[in-house]
Amino acid sequence: MAPPIENPYEERQTLLLERIIKNVDLLDEALQELNRSVAEINNQNQETTIVAEMWNGYHRNVEFNLKNMNPNRDSTE
User: Which residues form a coiled coil (predicted)?
Assistant: First the structure.
């Protein structure tokens, strides 16, 4: 029986796959750190977001009230 034919590119393919796997692992770690950083930033900005939403509400109320004020309105109406 003849010996099995070896793939001349097998070693190179194995090395390339190992490099790809290592780089994907590094990318995964970097993305996890990025996600943690974004979550931390979002937590720190939460109070600012709440104040901005309150300010917008006050602004809408003031605009509404100013539009509905009529200085020429009779008190008999």
Answer: 17-51
CA–CA separation, 54 vs 65, rounded Å?
17
Distance CA 34, CA 40 (A): 10
**pLDDT, tens digit, 9 for 90 and up, residues 24-71:** 999 999 999 999 999 999 999 999 999 999 999 999 999 999 999 876
Q: How far apart are CA 57 and CA 63, in angstroms?
A: 10
Cα 8 off chain centre by: 46
Query: Whole-structure pTM over 0.70, yes or no?
Result: no
